[in-house]
Amino acid sequence: MTDTIHEIPLDQIDAEALPRDRATRDPEADHELQLSILAEGLRQPVELFAMEGDTPYGLIAGHRRLAAFRALERATIPAFLRRPADIPAALAAMVSENEMRAQISPWEKGRLVVTCVAQGHFPNADAAIDSLYATLSRQKRSRLRSLVMAVEAFEDRFATPERLSLARLERLASALRAGWEDMLRAALPSPRSHSLESQWLAIEPVLAEATSPEGAASAPGTPRMPRRLLKLRQGLTIRRELTRSGWVLRFSGPEAKTPGLMDDVMDHVERMFGSAPDGR
After folding, report:
1. Confidence (pTM)
2. Cα separation, 172 vs 166, whole angstroms
């Protein structure tokens, strides 16, 4: 049996009735879609569900297609009308359609789960993952839990987070599970002044130590917890960092820009350990 296609006025459709799993837009791809619609029409109708309130329909699938029709100033759009049992079922349908038609980044998948839980559609992340990604293997659903952990800890902290690979997000989650969230936050520069790659370079030493045998041996809860991070007056932050050649202390904050601070630190170290025989 063929689904009935309805012509639905665009002003009767709420494109944001459901949390979306695609956070980024590609202007070039959007323009190509508009040209394709002009030349060949819409090959696949959008999918809608009935809602109560001023806007009678909510969008399940076809966000880019709907945006293209609006950009082309069309009055209506071809649509299939679905009857999901509830909002979680509609969300699951959206995810299923996008898994087949669109490349959704690992970060966007994790962010969708976090958003759905925050909006009350599911009681917790496990329930959201089991409902939205029911067809995935147990191993892949476990990986999704790692993505959710990374999104919860670093939402709005990375520039272009949708470009983070699955491997990088899993490294972040491993470090979080080991108790290194404060260190990672202290090392992560602002997305307003740094690109994703420069941010990653800044936290790479922390991740390397967190996932090393030395890092695991000194994780929170072990008998001797090292002092890895100090937050002092006027925003001064000091963290220790393991490098290939040994340990370094990294100072940040407004006061760290004062040369006299380093002089004071070196004077204190000299008092503790004594100066070299030649005075250097």
Report:
1. 0.68
2. 10
